[in-house]
Amino acid sequence: MPRRFFYGWWVNVAAFFTFGIAVGIPYYGMPFFYDYYQKDLGWSKSQITLGFPLAALFTLWVGPLLVHRFSPRKLILIGTALTCAAFLGYGHMGANLGLYYGLWFSYLVGYIFSGPIPHQVLISQWFRRKRGTAMGIAYLGVGVFGALSAKAIAKPLTDAFGWQAALQIMGLLMFLAWPIAIFVMRDRPRDLGLFPDGAPDNEGYVAPEPHNFRFLMRQRAFWLLVIGSFCSIGSIGSINQHMKLIFLDQGFTDQKLLNQTFSDALFAIMISSMAGRVIMGWLADRFPKKYVMLMTYVLVAATIPLLLLVRPPGTPYLFAILFGFGMGADYMLIPLMAAEQFGANTLARAMAIILPTDTIGQTWFPYGVALLREHFGSYSTALMAVFVLAAIGAAAIAMLPKYGRQDETLHLQEPAGAGVGS
Fold first, then answer.
1. What pLDDT does 169 receive?
2. Could you give the 3-state DSSP secondary structure of residue 153?
């Protein structure tokens, strides 16, 4: 009899859309509006970029305390609603800086609930042998919708209705994820009487019990992964948050040219990030993930100085393509490495610590870049600091063990109750 199509691939396609809607549109679309905040609301670069890190600081408790208590589908529904509320607020806030900072709190809780963690856990539950490929497909959604966020959503909506209305419409788009999450997604293969990867039976696989937070804190590999991802994601966040303002500093003073250059650069970054996710996800299924991750982190660091070479009317396509390739793989490889090192059943707990920590880097380092820019009067010193940060991240990954102690393949063909001890 022909083998039935594995439902996990439908879950994978659904994750492509929900992940793209929940993260790709709001996260990559928001910096499009920063120069409008500066021009129309009179805010400085440091004031504009402070909202994100403040929210990150006050939401540190959300991941460890709440995320592992709810199913991925519920998290996606709640998170997208909170993101919508934040963007509706951005469109009505006027020049109220305190309200702006408060809305970032709503957005960031929405990001934690509906962003990487639920999608990483979902894919890790449905796939073991093909986890890298499946994770790459899910992350493609972030690349596709991120590419569209400025060029095909924020820019045309702003041209047609103004930037305040554009923010509100972008918020309402979050509800496109709801029917997909409700009617297509399922949290685990056992909900449909299935096993990971569509295996006809469990092939002797005995899922290990999830490790607790105390176990993670005792692992050297865990802290290396935390430091490495913290530094690399911090450097990527600094570039994403400041790229349009860097262009403005480098002579793109015409608003139309500035919007076009930023949209084109972001589009190229996100398209290239899709290639990075597919290729590196494929490689991660075939080669030690440590080496694939290290190659990605080195690429991110090496491309940062290229951003300073762009001058009007040029668009930094070389930077965008190389940086995007590394960025796309970077985010995706973190949960793959965590699942390999500590087991898929412990992934929610591991990422509940790693994601908020990475978010601190992703948000506070852009604020530090803004302060450096204001102090030195240009972005040269600030970007050098970002380069050093990315290099530290690569060094931490280089010190990770080649293979994880909790590799799930060790549990294949073992009798119930056997396995790697904690």
1. 97
2. helix
Alpha-carbon gap, residue 380 to 376, rounded angstroms: 9
Higher pLDDT pick, 170 / 310: 170
The per-residue pLDDT for 407 is: 44
Distance CA 107, CA 244 (A): 21
Query: Buried b / exposed e across 13-44, counting CB within 10 Å, b at 16+?
Result: bbbbbbbbbbbbbbbbbbbbbbbbbbeeeebe
- Domains in the chain, number: 1
| CATH code, 57 | 1.20.1250.20
Closest by Cα among 130, 108, 107, 131 to 119: 131
Whole-angstrom Cα distance, residue 303 to residue 114? 30
- Using pLDDT thresholds of 50, 70 and 90, give the confidence band for residue 355: confident
Instruction: Give the DSSP H or E segment for 237.
Output: helix 220-249
Domain range enclosing 295: 8-197+213-405
Residue 249 tokens, joined = 């500093």
Supply the pTM of this predicted model: 0.75
DSSP reduced 3-state for 403: coil
